[in-house]
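hi! just following up on the protien thing from before. the input was this:
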Amino acid sequence: MLTKNFGLIGYPLSHSFSESYFREKFLREGITDCIFKNIEVIDLDYFISNLSRELTGFCITMPYKEKIIPYCDELDTNAKEIGAINVVKVITDKNKTVLKGYNSDIVGFDRSLFDNISNMKVKALILGTGGASKAVSYVLKKNGIDFKFVSRHPKNNNILSYNQIDKSILESYKLIINTTPLGMHPFLEEVPNINIDYITPSHIIFDLIYNPSQTIFMKLAKAKGAKTINGFDMLCYQAEEAWRIWNAK
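and the predicted 3d structure came back as:
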């Protein structure tokens, strides 16, 4: 039986549950011909040239969701529009290998959002402007949710800086989505620069981090009465979507 190899690339990966998620999935579903491994990649050029074609497919996490795009031979329509990918399908046909990029984060975030939020008239702040933020903004736009990006280094007037997030902003924007790595290893003690005193029970904090299950930011917001959501359900949904992509004919 030919073994199919899958993996997750990024750096660092000590925080990731993806390997254990797929290992448990394979055991649970009796899948015996597949292996999933976390692959810490420091040199993206080397990985693409020497290792990628040994895989049937792989997921991508920080810091490569945008950097990997030029290495792909094809992009799915949604991935092309978003400008970030987190899934690659390795297609071999007539001795030719094609890397096709997809974005399953949009499925993961969309489903997790609908599981937890009933009021789609809420306005959102997206903390961070990296690859994950692009999938989040795509989903919010699709659902008609007004949003603003927040960054430490705004590149234009449409992006807020953290020092602009005052009480009046937080009175209008009740959904706060953290797409930055602040709160996970090695930034466990760090929190986004938002005044927690302005957080109320009407706020929803959606932190895409899932390890730890509660970041300091979530704990502080919860103490103010806010609803908090971590990224674990999003991880599960996007992983299942990646599996569907890899196995689609």
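Residues 105-234 form a domain with the Rossmann fold fold (CATH 3.40.50.720).
The two ends are 20 Å apart (CA to CA).
cheers
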